[in-house]
Amino acid sequence: MLTTLQVKSSQRSEMIDVTGQVQTVVSKSGIKDGICYLYVPHTTGAITINEGADPNVVVDILTTLDRLIPWRNNYRHMEGNAAAHIKTSLMGSSERIFIDNGKLVLGTWQRIFFCEFDGPRTRKLHVKVASL
Ligand code: ZN
């Protein structure tokens, strides 16, 4: 079963905590032991897992990416959003998370973040839950 979540961003660069939405999909699936696959079907949006306890971690990630990959830098891509494409490839388009006893197996401080790099937009996040 494939579920597609909608994620709305409100800024050009943003990391949006989608852990609750993903856990809801897992809970509704009824699968107790398995794996949850996440896939972002965009070229300027990504997915990552990192700390959600201190919101400054996300700020630090975004500001460091901006410093490493500035928006304007004599890129050749005509659309003007080359930085967003580069950040997306660095962060990645997919994640896999174990499911145990119906719950996503995440570390104490871990959260799942949709990474927006060319917002604001409405994005898709595909979620596939499988029993193992
Ligand atoms: Zn582009």
The CATH homologous superfamily is named YjbQ-like
- Strands of the largest sheet, in order across it? 1-8-3-5-6
Ligands bound to this protein structure: zinc ion
Cα-atom radius of gyration: 15 Å
Determine the mean pLDDT: 98
Structural class: alpha+beta
Into which percentage range does the β-strand content fall? 35-45%
CATH-defined topology: Jelly Rolls
Helix and strand sequence: EEHEEHHEEEE
Low-confidence stretches: none
Distance between the termini: 14 Å
Report on this structure.
The chain is of the alpha+beta class and 132 residues long. The protein has 3 helices and 8 strands. It has helices spanning 19-29, 55-68, 82-91; strands at 2-8, 14-17, 34-39, 45-51, 94-100, 103-104, 110-116, 122-131. The protein has a 5-stranded antiparallel β-sheet with strand order 1-8-3-5-6, covered by helices on one side. It is elongated. The model has no long low-confidence stretch (mean pLDDT 98). The chain binds zinc ion. Zinc ion binds at residues 77, 79, 81, 85. Residues 77, 79, 81, 85 line the site of zinc ion.
Looking at this protein, list some descriptive labels.
132 residues, alpha+beta, Jelly Rolls, 5-stranded antiparallel sheet, 3-stranded antiparallel sheet, 3 helices, 27% helix, binds zinc ion
Briefly say what this structure is.
This protein is an alpha+beta fold and 132 residues long. It has three helices and eight strands; from the N terminus they run ββαββααββββ.
